[in-house]
Amino acid sequence: MLVVENLQVSYGQIKALKGISFEVPQNKIVTLIGSNGAGKSTTLRSISGLIKSQAGSIKFNGKEIRNLPAHELVKLGMNHVPEGRKIFATLTVYENLEMAAWTVKNKKLFKERVDEVFELFPRLKERRNQLGGTLSGGEQQMLAVGRAIVTGGNFILFDEPSMGLSPLLVDEIFATIIKIRERGATILLVEQNAKQALEISDYAYVLEVGTIPFHGPACDIAANPKVKEAYLGI
């Protein structure tokens, strides 16, 4: 579904990505793990059109999309749940969902997607008229995920979805990611909680200073002694 080849991204003289290549097959969860500064968020932002890359290829469903504007990628079925949630704090939960549905012209389809969000996150339904900025961190993350569902598309980029959440909410967010995949979505996950990310993923890539030294089935990566020592605290 997504094929990235020799992707290179620089910030001035600093090379953030030094020619990485990876694939995300349809209806799979693929995770990128790595330490701070490894280039994980840069990878997602370059795929979703939020920053420009200098070289390489990004193909989505066979179409070259490198450096296409973000709004064009949304129309193609790609969604990005950003690090830090980035919800509209001064809008209600329902208004946030309305804003996310700018490509949805069919009111019935919009209602169906909102109902799906409220089924996944009953707390959001209870707070549908509450301002986004007054939600807890966990509820804001639910809303960020809900916006992606309402927007539509079947490919979702998750950037650090568990950041800043309590252990109980972390479990809930990971369980939700599994449910979203079960409903037909394909997921590229960036996550510092490597242990849980590997537990729910089909395949994994380890990103280190803009390169990918290890990749393979998630269970194999979790068993790799170097990965265990560096990222799993074992």
Describe the secondary structure blueprint for this structure.
Layout: E1 2-11, E2 14-24, E3 29-33, H1 40-47, E4 55-60, E5 63-64, H2 70-76, E6 78-81, H3 93-100, H4 107-120, H5 122-126, H6 137-151, E7 155-159, H7 167-182, E8 186-190, H8 194-200, E9 203-208, E10 211-217, H9 218-223, H10 225-231
Parallel strand pairs: 3-8, 3-9, 6-7, 7-8
Antiparallel strand pairs: 1-2, 1-4, 4-5, 9-10
Helix pairs in contact: 3-6, 4-6
3D architecture notes:
With 234 residues, the chain is an alpha/beta fold. It has a domain at 1-71 and 189-234: P-loop containing nucleotide triphosphate hydrolases (Rossmann fold, 3-Layer(aba) Sandwich). The protein is 40% helix and 26% strand. It has ten helices and ten strands. The chain has helices spanning 40-47, 70-76, 93-100, 107-120, 122-126, 137-151, 167-182, 194-200, 218-223, 225-231; strands at residues 2-11, 14-24, 29-33, 55-60, 63-64, 78-81, 155-159, 186-190, 203-208, 211-217. The strands form two sheets. The protein has a six-stranded mixed beta sheet with strand order 6-7-8-3-9-10, with helices on both faces. A hairpin with a 2-residue loop joins strand 9 and strand 10 (211-217). The protein starts with a strand and ends with a helix. The model has no long low-confidence stretch (mean pLDDT 93).
